[in-house]
Amino acid sequence: MSESKPAGAADNPARMRDTQYRDSSKLARRANIHKYGSAKIGWFDWIAQEARLPADAEVLDVGCGPGWMWTAGGFPHGLSLTLTDFSKGMVREAVPRVAGLGRYRAVEGRVADAAALPFADQSFDAVLACHMLYHVPDPGRAIDEMIRVLRPGGIVAITTNGSDNMSEMYALAHAAWGGSAIDPGGAGFGIEAAETALKARLAEVQVATYLDQLRVTDGEDIVAVLTSYPPGEDAGEAQIETLQALIAARMAEHGGVFPIHKRQGLVRGRKAGQWAAAKATNYVSSG
After folding, report:
1. What is the pTM of this model?
2. Strand boundaries in 46-169, DSSP class E
């Protein structure tokens, strides 16, 4: 996923599951803003490039959401995927979407708690957690679980936001109704926290940064993002009008465009030990 954490998500994950992530509708409102990006490579293709998954790997996706990421063309087509999420609705969407592509060796889905993964030790060659650990009350425990189910030599890859990600947009929310003035996901478990957590547990930890600039031409797309999660989803008419006026003023200053800077990242590490020779050398990168 590529979106920002609704405030309070880690405080009550079950409530978030049943309200924010019952299905992909609110997530889609937040994801829609990224259509204004100008980066040479799309976010999901960039993840595929930086994760560098072995071509025949058995991969666990923790917090798969609706499975949008796996539609990217850059992932090896021979992967065996296990898609998990705390939300039954997300798994229900993700599995047919990804399996229907016909490019992966196997696609399975399972409802799972990231802090208590229902898999045996050393079950996977790679584990990905993309833009979801800031939803977990104890990210360190979730990472320990990811490493537990990982085979020796296997890969952990985590994506998240920088604390300054899309700061221009969050400043508007703060001015309109007192929401967070910075990206709540980046503040809760951002790139730096992910790097620290993996360096304490894994070898060969590397950080890659994804920069982009959105040039938003329809201010209502910003309104849709900021009113898709608390406290914005409870904003009154006057507060929304204040937000719209702030957006209009900024767009007037920039010739009808609202510029928003993105800073996201992927932190990748390797578990101690060695793969079988074939898996250690047989990997595909789109970079």
Report:
1. 0.89
2. 58-62, 80-85, 106-111, 124-130, 150-161
Q: Do strands 58-62 and 124-130 pair parallel, antiparallel, or not at all (unpaired)?
A: parallel
In a domain, 74, yes or no: yes
Give the strand pairing for 124-130 and 150-161.
Answer: parallel
Q: What is the dihedral of CA 175, 177, 178, 181, to 10 degrees?
A: -50
Q: How many whole angstroms from its chain centre is CA 86?
A: 14
pLDDT digits (tens, 9 = 90+) for 205-244: 999 999 999 999 999 999 999 999 888 989 999 999 999 9
Cis peptide before 6 (omega within 30 of 0): no
Flag whether 217 is in a domain. Answer: no
The mean pLDDT value for 31-37 works out to 96
Which amino acid, one-letter code, is at 144?
D
Q: How many domains does the chain have?
A: 1
